[in-house]
Amino acid sequence: PVPRKSAIAKSVSANEVLTRILATPVTMSVEEVVSLSKDVASEFQELLKVRRKEPSINVAYAGDSQRFVGGPLITIPVEINGKKVRAIVDSGSELNIMNQTLFQQATCIAIDKS
């Protein structure tokens, strides 16, 4: 059976109306948008997170697998239980790392590998 339409309904395309409705600007506060959807709130949080920017590299050589960062390493002389070593200082690091052999030679502390 063919669906029946009024003269007015025949002159209007449902797809065109839907397209126009979806393109219509809606004035809402950020609070309204964020409170409506947990996904939208999460996306806003992700966009607002401050991230450390990686330094840009001007020169790289093909086949070189090393990662280039900024300038030279900062090294300082350090003495650990009477043993003199050179330490690398990385002011942006979140970890303190020491060679296992050096650690065992310089201290009497057991390494917890759990």
UniProtKB/TrEMBL annotation:
InterPro entries linked: DUF4100, Peptidase_aspartic_dom_sf
Domain DUF4100: 6-53
Record SUPFAM superfamilies: Acid proteases
Short name of one Pfam family: DUF4100
Entry coiled-coil feature ranges: none
Domain of life of the organism encoding this protein: Eukaryota
Stated name of the protein: DUF4100 domain-containing protein
